[in-house]
Amino acid sequence: MAHQLWQESRSGILSTRSLEHKGYPFGSLAPYSLDRQGRPLLLLAHLAQHTRNLQAEPGCSLTLVEPGQGDVQQLARLTALARAEAINSPSEALLERHFHHYPDSRPYFEQLNFRFYRLIPERFYFVGGFGAARWFNTGQILDENKPTEQG
């Protein structure tokens, strides 16, 4: 279920360490696509608070929630502890992969100076409902056997 949630979700809560309010997390809803190895690709505005936070401290988390109604504590949740890295020269394959899911975001990249970031997950925490929680290593969630997608 954790792997499926990771593969099928396209947005989550990106939590960064606040620059403005030291010691506090800063969460924001973030759409993302996955690269060929299953790592999240985010297109972020250079002026956004979460982008400035990541530039100062790349440690972050991305939390996903299973779609559904009712008691949210009964829904599956997956949190990736990750490190963000800026992608200075994204490949055409990376651009097409992301814009396939978010075609309306292309002008943000081409005209508004948005920049791609890749999250490199280090560990995952999965909650499968009330009382069902466990840690996963990256190899259990990511598609690490696929070829690396550069840029």
UniProtKB/TrEMBL annotation:
Stretches assigned to the CREG-like beta-barrel domain: 1-135
Under Pfam families, the record lists:
CREG_beta-barrel (PF13883)
Q: Which domain of life is it from?
A: Bacteria
InterPro entries, per database record: CREG_beta-barrel, HutZ, Split_barrel_FMN-bd
Listed GO CC annotations: cytoplasm
| SUPFAM superfamilies the record matches | FMN-binding split barrel
Q: What is this protein called?
A: CREG-like beta-barrel domain-containing protein
Q: Which organism is it from?
A: endosymbiont of Tevnia jerichonana (vent Tica)
